Automatic annotation (TrEMBL):
It comes from Glycomyces luteolus. GO terms for molecular function: metal ion binding. It comes from the Bacteria. This is TIGR03086 family metal-binding protein. SUPFAM superfamilies: DinB/YfiT-like putative metalloenzymes.
Length: 195
């Protein structure tokens, strides 16, 4: 099997895993920038979405639970749970040629070119890394270059998803915004969010 390296996805997965590893034992029920979701629920959603991308690409089983209705109760080790999901997604994407014109994805329009599709998968991991890090007082998990690349993919897929409630309306750009802030505002998140 041919394998394709996707550095953007690897960076987003690493950001998400590091954010989850940084959650304290007493922080799993804290509120997050994802309105009405706790840190646990964001983790469940993020892991479920990575499994959904893997399933779309491989035809395998998707997440056992609905990523858009996370229970807030996690009975397994959070890092192990997320690691399994990100590894499944990374393995699935490794078999996708970087010039593939039509790749199945779990978000409308359900088929994207490979670069946009992997950007969408990275977007999901990266923004939830930020959600978890912000909610738990951790440092910025996203790099400027990754945020800029993810914003390119976001501008190709996010608008139809806003109608489903997956993203809030975009916030106005502000003077001095860096690439991370620009991405967050486009996704309807306030870079200065506090609980």
């Amino acid at each position: 099997m041919t394998t394709t390296a996707w550095p953007l996805l690897a960076e987003a997965h690493e950001a998400l895993l590091n954010a989850v590893k940084g959650v304290g034992d007493d922080q799993w029920q804290l509120p997050t920038p994802c309105d009405q979701w706790t840190v646990t629920q964001v983790l469940q959603h993020a892991a479920g979405d990575q499994l959904a991308y893997a399933a779309a690409l491989t035809g395998g089983e998707g997440p056992a639970d609905n990523p858009f209705a996370p229970s807030g109760t996690l009975l397994v080790n959070p890092v192990a749970h997320l690691t399994a999901a990100t590894e499944a997604a990374a393995e699935a994407w490794a078999s996708v040629a970087d010039d593939a014109a039509a790749v199945p994805v779990p978000v409308p329009p359900n088929t994207l070119d490979a670069v946009t599709g992997v950007g969408a998968c990275a977007l999901d991991a990266a923004v939830h890394a930020w959600d978890i890090a912000k909610a738990t007082g951790q440092g910025q998990p996203l790099g400027e270059d990754a945020a800029g690349a993810i914003l390119i993919a976001a501008k190709q897929i996010v608008e139809p998803l806003r109608a489903w409630g997956a993203y809030a309306p975009a916030l106005e750009p502000q003077p001095g915004d860096d690439a991370v802030a620009a991405l967050l505002r486009y996704l309807g998140r306030d870079p200065e969010w506090t609980a």
